Amino acid sequence: MKKIFFLFGFLVLSGCGGDAFNEGEDYGNLLDTPGGLTLNQSEHPLGWGDANCTICHNLENIHLVNRTGTSIDIVAIHDRAISEGISGCAACHGNNGVP
Fold first, then answer.
1. More confident of the two residues 21 and 26
2. Which residues contact 86 (CB under 8 A, 6 or more apart)?
3. Using one digit for the tens of pLDDT, what is the confidence trace for 46-57?
């Protein structure tokens, strides 16, 4: 019986610490695009006009890495995205073509 618990404990612990850092969704530096942070149809063709951003974008997987080259508080931005949900997307990214 002790061998089973030892084996189980070993298997559980062997899985710890092996995951790579999650860099989240990477769309490059949006500030360098013609629309900047504001989405437009040419840069966001598949999701344009859809108000439900989370159909394609997992809120837990966005705003994890600062790709702007400026000093922003990426942790605060990620936390805001989580707390506000899709209702907060438009504040930074425009209405995505939704009337």
1. 26
2. 51, 52, 53, 54, 59
3. 999 999 999 999
